[in-house]
Design goal:
By secondary structure, the protein is mainly α. The chain is built from three helices and no strands. Helix 1 packs antiparallel against helix 2. It is elongated.
């Protein structure tokens, strides 16, 4: 690490590496359109995909969103997953608006 620092830079202690796991959301349902909408929102976020938007837009909209939602829906249907995913169902009481 010190090979990349200028000669007059103060010493930097060796850091530990950690892994942070986050749930960035879940589709509202297991049908094609809910999964497609979720993937579009998720993969359009510049914090998730850090690349040139002019390059990424056609890849996302013409390739990924044309094929991936159907591939994701099939295993959900084969496994008999309920209409809402487990994460969505578990978080529903937490995210309900107050009356």
């Amino acid at each position: 690490m010190s090979a990349h620092l200028p000669p007059d830079h103060p010493s930097v202690p060796k850091q530990k590496i950690g892994v942070l796991l986050l749930n960035l959301g879940t589709p509202d349902g297991t049908d094609y359109w809910n999964v497609r909408r979720y993937l579009r929102e998720f993969l359009s976020d510049p914090r998730v995909i850090e690349t040139n938007k002019l390059l990424w837009w056609p890849i996302l909209n013409l390739v990924i969103l044309s094929f991936r939602p159907q591939k994701a829906v099939m295993p959900m249907r084969k496994s008999g997953t309920a209409r809402k995913t487990k994460v969505h169902s578990a978080s529903s009481p937490v995210i309900r608006p107050k009356a």
